[in-house]
Design goal:
By secondary structure, the protein is α+β, with helices and mostly antiparallel strands. It has a single domain (16-208), classed as NADH Oxidase. Helix content is 44%, strand content 10%. The chain is built from eight helices and five strands, in the order ααβααβααβαββα. The longest helix is centred in the middle third of the chain and has 29 residues, at 62-90.
């Protein structure tokens, strides 16, 4: 126990929150209040100047979900085909399971009970700098991750998706989003049908951390 937290539970939540694309319960409704509870936690995330420059669209209308899913598929399916071809050409192994999972979500996205679209209350200029871009996304992505962690702790699965943004203006028309607002992602939300997650395989921290200067690895 440290600073009032059970680190074993905190670390378990942080290391086992995965993108869920296949093990989503497409038949069990997700109550709006559960989503709102998770969004209340999301809103505790930091933002630049504590400006909280966001709005959150919770989409549970089947007809609206279907229209968003169609836009997602229009972007996803060519993207997935290109990804499969690139993986085969490069001789990469072990990616078929991930790509199959992605295809499953695309095929069934319209059946997912809730889609949540986080939005930033501004647009980047065409010549946006790295500073401007980091500021916009840095002021909402932490809240999105808070939301996904809160879902996970309650037994729901989610995934951070962005492919519908190839058709952002068409999605904006479906959702009535003003031209001054930026859609950041689309988060499918459903009860999780699996029996738990384990930490994913990752490179050792020593291989990806530098100290003070690029490629200067910390010593023992």
């Amino acid at each position: 126990m440290t600073a009032g937290f059970d680190l074993s539970q905190t670390d378990r939540l942080l290391t086992t929150t995965r993108s869920v694309r296949r093990r989503l319960d497409l038949t069990r409704p997700v109550e709006r209040e559960v989503v709102l509870d998770c969004l209340r936690i999301a809103l505790q995330a930091p933002s630049g100047g504590n400006s909280q420059p966001w709005r959150w669209l919770v989409v549970d209308d089947p007809a609206v979900r279907a229209r968003l899913a169609e836009l997602y598929r229009r972007s996803h399916d060519p993207y997935l085909a290109a990804s499969r071809a690139a993986a085969q050409q490069a001789g990469r192994t072990g990616v078929d399971r991930i790509l199959d999972s992605s295809q499953h979500l695309s095929d069934h996205l319209h059946e997912v009970p809730v889609l949540v679209v986080p939005c930033a209350l501004q647009r980047l200029p065409q010549d946006a700098s790295v500073f401007d871009t980091a500021g916009l996304y840095g002021s909402i992505v932490p809240a999105v991750w808070n939301f996904m962690l809160a879902l996970r702790s309650r037994g729901l699965g989610s995934a951070y998706t962005t492919l519908h943004l190839n058709y952002e203006r068409e999605a904006a028309e479906v959702l009535g989003i003003p031209e001054t607002v930026t859609q950041v992602a689309m988060i499918p939300v459903a009860w999780y049908t699996g029996d738990g997650f384990r930490p994913a395989r990752r490179r050792p921290v020593e291989q990806v951390v530098y100290l003070n200067r690029w490629r200067h690895k910390p010593g023992p």
